[in-house]
Amino acid sequence: MRTTRLLGSAELDASPVVANIAMNRGRRLASYSRELGLNLAGLLPGASWLDLCCGEGHALAEAAMLGADVTGVDLVGHFAVPPGKNVELVVAAVPGWRPARKFDLVTAVHGLHYVGDKLKFLADVAGWLTDHGRFAASFDVASVHTESRRKLLATLRSQGFVYDSRKKLISRTGPAAIELPYEYLGADDKAGPNYTGQPAVVSHYRVYVDCTNPDS
Ligand SMILES: C[S@@+](CC[C@H](N)C(=O)[O-])C[C@H]1O[C@@H](n2cnc3c(N)ncnc32)[C@H](O)[C@@H]1O
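That is the input. Now the predicted structure with S-adenosylmethionine docked in place:
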């Protein structure tokens, strides 16, 4: 039986599963629209867009040409497009990096699979949306290890997230200040391929018990 060794953030960021050069970082805007089930070319003109785990940034550059104000964040700086007046490109890890503004659209296309603290990522993003701002990301709940995934999904739903288990998408509309009652324990980069067929990271949590609350 395999012994699970949980990695902290520095080890995870250097893991070959996360920082490899073979993964597809080159999706265009039409591909993003298909992946997320959104008409991005219709949504983006005049809008602000934050793309987390943005890869090479092609979709962002196309959106900027349509009149969007775009920010891309990625752990590695393999950007294939230049920054510009409406194009900000940031090399940083999420969670960790924080924006100085809110966005009409926040996305992560096949990025959360490699993130350590996925629940903090989701909670952070909820605070970065404008009043009617939308969030959509590729997400497989099987990549979260905790006592009960059913209870986790119920908690996420109670906080305004929508999870589509068939399309492996998580989304929400509108901002919220969210604290999820889960303690992050670390990430397993040896869990093997996920539904995409690529090796992915499983994030481990335990339910946070508030000792000051007799009902918890
Ligand atoms: C499969 S690629 C997808 C890139 C892009 N969204 C696309 O669809 O073309 C996943 C990206 O997530 C980035 N990534 C992984 N972990 C990250 C983290 N903790 N913070 C920011 N970016 C991360 C990787 O560097 C990689 O560029």
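The beta strands are 48-52, 69-74, 87-91, 103-108, 129-138, 144-145, 162-164, 169-173, 182-188, 202-207.
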